[in-house]
């Protein structure tokens, strides 16, 4: 068996590669990356792999048995780029594709869902064995804002009292490793999310407890939060997207209580307390 991981030099990809090395020999792992030289420290073989360059993809997948297709970071181009990978996998004889989608992609109001729905449809029409990992939001999406919260004396957002079933990248990476190295996952779709849902007020309270600072959660109107993010240097489109997704979260878009993630990885998912502790460390 040879397992290949796309986006291998990204944050999720690196964690998956590390997890795979604990389960199988490095010789059975291929790191696929746009700049393969950046994969030199991963300790596995690497190949050039640019989702937007379909001519190079078939050769890069030669001999691959199972492929983890980590969704592209180029919003707006994902559906086409993923289709390039699926077509190349068919030509190269890849037996099984595992895809990182979005929590409840089939019905999610989050705008990212549209491209994930298109890719899921392409995968199901491909004739290949497919497993879909519908990943929820990362804790890191919010803990990345801790420095700003400490500087400004408050944690801001516009998710209201929305219940967020968060897990860490490491949790989601462990699920991908379990599926890639296990059996019986073909044809399945997993809704993956943290065991215990929290609100952003909960996050602010735990951050206050661990730092000894009083850091309230301040819920802003969508436009004001987007403006705040732009002022922090985020590109306009991304800032507006983050604010919109927070509003979607306020309406339950990031909640799931099925506990499929902890079942796959054989342990509870990372808690709020642990996530903040590691972020502060």
Description:
The protein has helices at 11-21, 54-60, 78-92, 113-125, 140-143, 146-152, 169-181, 200-211, 222-231, 236-250, 260-265, 272-280, and strands at residues 3-5, 29-33, 45-48, 66-69, 96-102, 129-135, 155-157, 189-192, 217-219. It is of the alpha/beta class and 281 residues long. It folds into two domains: 3-135, Rossmann fold; 137-165 and 193-256 and 267-281, UDP-galactose 4-epimerase, domain 1. The strands form two sheets. It has a seven-stranded parallel sheet, sandwiched between helices. Strands 7-9 form a two-stranded parallel ribbon. Strand 5 (96-102), helix 4 (113-125) and strand 6 (129-135) form a beta-alpha-beta unit. Helix 2 (54-60) packs across helix 3, helix 3 packs parallel to helix 4 and helix 8 crosses helix 12. The protein starts with a strand and ends with a helix.
List keywords for this structure.
9 strands; 2 domains; Rossmann fold; two-stranded parallel sheet; globular; 12 helices; alpha/beta; seven-stranded parallel β-sheet; UDP-galactose 4-epimerase, domain 1
How large is the radius of gyration? 19 Å
CATH superfamily of the largest domain: NAD(P)-binding Rossmann-like Domain
* Helix content bin: 40-55%
Shape descriptor:
globular
The CA-CA distance between the termini, in Å, is 38 Å
The total domain count is 2
Oligomer: single chain
Helix and strand composition category? alpha/beta
The name of the CATH architecture of the largest domain is 3-Layer(aba) Sandwich
- Overall strand count: 9
Count of DSSP H/I helices: 12
